[in-house]
Amino acid sequence: MNSILPAGQGLTPEQIDVLKEIGNICVGNSTGILSQLLGGTVDVYLPGLDILDEQQLYNYIKSQGKLVYGVNAQISSQLQGTIFLLFPERHALRIIEKFLSELHATGSQQTQFGISIIKEIGGIALFSYLNTLSSLIKKLILSSVPNFLSGTVDELMGMMLRDYEHWGRVCVVHTSFLEQSMGIEGSYYLILSRNSAETILQAVS
């Protein structure tokens, strides 16, 4: 099959729109699960998409320096990449407080329960995102067990993306959302190899 992304060229506006719409559908389904877990309506912002080389990616994540909690999973099988769900620290703490109050956890239990809460909620949300993506492209997508993350966005993404420096250019689909009842903001970052972006476009063309 001939490549629809010729070497050295970027995506067309139509291809960008397709990838952004796929990201929007995946986030819509995933945040539907979050709205059930958190108990309120979730608004999804228009997705962004960037094609970045190694230096551009470094500058991109360098500009994202707020402290966050979240989860990350590696993607394999038909696609290669990684996905993040990140919450600003104070918003993650609101989620933790909500569920700790229901669990009546105290003392040393709180830290471990807090990590488990973010990991469990994030894992469910990431599974929903990737399951939707798998259904849209009709290809099997495998993912690693979600990892709990805490730190600045640049620290976390920089650490995770070292494994992908050999890819050259990568596709970053970034979508943010707001859960209204608790004022919880969050962001998904789907980072794919160039070949994986091509696989998605071929699957839906």
Strand-helix topology:
Layout: H1 13-38, E1 42-44, E2 48-52, H2 54-62, E3 67-77, E4 81-88, H3 89-103, H4 109-137, E5 141-143, E6 147-152, H5 153-161, E7 170-179, E8 184-193, H6 194-204
Antiparallel strand pairs: 1-7, 2-7, 3-4, 3-5, 3-6, 4-8, 7-8
Structure in words:
With 205 residues, the chain is an alpha+beta fold. The protein has one domain: Chemotaxis protein chec (3-Layer(aba) Sandwich), CATH 3.40.1550. Helix content is 48%, strand content 27%. A hairpin with a 4-residue loop joins strand 7 and strand 8 (184-193). Helix 1 packs across helix 4 (109-137) and helix 2 (54-62) runs antiparallel to helix 5. The chain starts with 12 loop residues before the first helix and ends with a helix.
Q: How would you briefly describe this protein structure?
A:
With 205 residues, this protein is α+β, with helices and mostly antiparallel strands. It has helices at residues 13-38, 54-62, 89-103, 109-137, 153-161, 194-204, and strands at residues 42-44, 48-52, 67-77, 81-88, 141-143, 147-152, 170-179, 184-193.
